[in-house]
């Protein structure tokens, strides 16, 4: 499918918010390119976004977009993560595969994923040691529906491991900073279609625990690097999937305690966005700053 584009009168705004002070800084905006899904480089120098099927970076303090060469990788979507050492960026391409690309350029991309027919890989997380990717495996069906489950694969390539196997939509699979958990959103506890909540499980797929319990539709859990906070995007009740162009809320669950009951929820920012706002890990290494994209209409 073609890359998303801005609507008439719409712009994309890249923000960085300090979750302690509430200071919200506009870093970059565009009325021509719909960019999405910010990552931070581990050294804090760069913010990374995708747009128009390509990958870009810009200085974390603001500046112009600089394209990250992808070589012969097909157009990418908004699922990308950086390795813990910052040397490699892993991307999901529209051909359904995962690729490893040198972040500083100067090398050829490498396909990581295996050929599984119509199976599509949607990347969301990387383990703290950089050895394993967490992704959503999508199997399309003839009636237009699809089954999604959580999988992992070594970053060096190798055998895929399936962690969930059910009929409920799963998405947003991401490792906890200590490497002990995989967090994800799922409709397995839904009260109506589309009612996703946040969960975590051990890295072998066992010990599934529910983390949020409310009427809203919660997606894309991101634990801060120090393990103290869980950020996520919350859609209005009744939302199906994670669509674009809605009034959504970025929320924090704090303290997030990997060995006990999660803390309380607070609203961080209300914005017009959704798809593309925080699809991928978006914390700075200081565990205070969170990057997100809003899509306001003029």
Automatic annotation (TrEMBL):
SUPFAM superfamilies: DPP6 N-terminal domain-like. InterPro entries: 6-blade_b-propeller_TolB-like, WD40. Belongs to the TolB family. This is Biopolymer transporter Tol.
């Amino acid at each position: 499918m073609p890359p998303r584009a801005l609507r008439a009168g719409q712009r994309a705004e890249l923000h960085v918010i300090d979750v302690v002070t509430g200071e919200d800084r506009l870093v970059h905006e565009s009325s021509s390119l719909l960019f999405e899904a910010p990552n931070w480089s581990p050294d804090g120098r760069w913010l990374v976004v995708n747009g128009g099927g390509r990958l870009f970076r810009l200085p974390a303090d603001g500046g112009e977009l600089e394209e990250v060469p992808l070589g012969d990788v097909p157009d990418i979507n908004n699922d990308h993560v950086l390795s813990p050492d910052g040397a490699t960026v892993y991307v999901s391409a529209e051909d359904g595969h995962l690729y490893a690309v040198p972040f500083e350029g100067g090398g050829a991309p490498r396909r990581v994923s295996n050929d599984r027919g119509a199976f599509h890989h949607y990347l969301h997380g990387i383990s703290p040691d950089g050895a394993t990717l967490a992704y959503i495996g999508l199997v399309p069906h003839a009636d237009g529906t699809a089954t999604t489950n959580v999988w992992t694969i070594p970053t060096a390539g190798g055998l895929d491991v399936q962690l969930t196997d059910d009929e409920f939509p799963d998405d947003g699979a991401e490792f906890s900073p200590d490497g002990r958990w995989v967090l994800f959103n799922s409709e397995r506890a839904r009260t109506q279609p589309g009612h996703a909540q946040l969960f975590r499980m051990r890295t072998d797929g066992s010990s599934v625990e529910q983390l949020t319990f409310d009427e809203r539709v919660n997606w894309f859990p991101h634990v801060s690097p120090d393990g103290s906070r869980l950020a996520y995007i919350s859609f209005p009740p009744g939302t199906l999937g994670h669509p674009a162009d809605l009034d959504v809320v970025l929320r924090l669950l704090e303290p997030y305690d990997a060995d006990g009951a999660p803390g309380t929820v607070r609203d961080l920012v209300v914005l017009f966005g959704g798809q593309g706002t925080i699809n991928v890990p978006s914390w700075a290494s200081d565990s205070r700053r969170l990057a997100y994209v809003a899509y306001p209409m003029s």
